[in-house]
From TrEMBL:
This is Polygalacturonase. InterPro entries: Glyco_hydro_28 (IPR000743), PbH1 (IPR006626), Pectin_lyas_fold (IPR012334), Pectin_lyase_fold/virulence (IPR011050). Keywords: Cell wall, Cell wall biogenesis/degradation, Glycosidase, Hydrolase, Secreted, Signal. GO terms for molecular function: polygalacturonase activity. The keyword Hydrolase applies. The active site is at H240. Its main location: secreted. Belongs to the glycosyl hydrolase 28 family. Residues 1-25 form the signal peptide.
Amino acid sequence: MGLSSLFSKAVLLVFMVEFMSQVCSQSSVFDVKDSGAVGDGKTDNTNAFLDAWKKACQSGGTVMIVGGTYLLKTIQFSGPCNGQVSFMVNAVIQAPQGQSNEHYWINFNNINGLTIQGNGTFDGQGPSAWPFNDCHNAASCSPLSPSLVLTKLNQSLVQNVKLLNSKGFQMKIEESEKITVNNITITAPADSPNTDGIHTGNVNYINIVDSNIGTGDDCISMGAGTTNINITRVNCGPGHGISIGSIGKYLTDQNVEGVKVQNCTMSSTQNGVRIKTWNSTFSLSVADVTFQDIVMDKAQNPIIIDQQYCGGRHDCIGSSHVQVKDIKFIRVSGTSASEIAVNFNCSSSNPCYDIELNDINLSSENGGKATSWCSNARVSYIGTQNPASCQQALAPAMMLEYM
């Protein structure tokens, strides 16, 4: 394995100890109530939260949110800060009802050593906005606002908090490095549109561990420019599984490499572990990826590589120039809710290669025989193979219904 294997549980523990020692060493606590915040679920607390943040950022310390429900409009907490800052949430932070197409509801930006923690909840009030989502029917649309967006952070920690019913994505991590997400809970209904749990893009050294994610889209989606990411002990469901991509839609997209997903469970998900790329005409790669010790519990499409993604449409033209290589599926077991448990639909111009299936044991949920389907994929097999190894298809792999 590449650099991702170095960013292990030991590194996570070192980061957490360091973060907690930094937080405990801070003597300054800035309660948002002292800045005028009212936790009645009605009062706009945006200015009060910004005032408390400004004080904590100027000197280092803890922004404290305790008791009640605090209504917040679109807000950005910006650095750089003069010292470590902790955002302690032991209450409900609630978004306004209705449609919002802003780039974020809450944004933490340009901060080194931020800690977001507590037993509280970020409530995006998604049910009031989801009827306005038309991205499944429109060629172009404005996505609904993600709840929590982390941009340009370094050496930071998010732990224990809950994210509930975002309007759009629940959490986005972008242009950041050395971020740990630990023991969080993300919840949205299975039919909520585009409510990805955690989305990453242009990031390096990310740990997502010991968390429970159930959404209406990907539990975790790794976008372009994601490198050296470790996802461990994540329970996913409902949702669309854990996905790399989609990659190759935009000229600005960067390679994805150094991905390790291990000891995770997919329960009644639309997909299990997936790589999806567009039919791009520019060269990119997805490489050095390991899915290991994954349990499928009635996952619809347990193992998928799809290089004719096209946003879920079936009118894809041409072949993808995104090279998918050095991909390992090790000890993937459980039940498939569809007949095709392993589906490699790769590019005719850039076939997938160095694909390894090692000890795969996937049975059909309904008692039938699970099968494999491969197109333009160079696959090696080690150990148990259930379903049996697939023959190369002359035609593209069967198109499955997923987004």
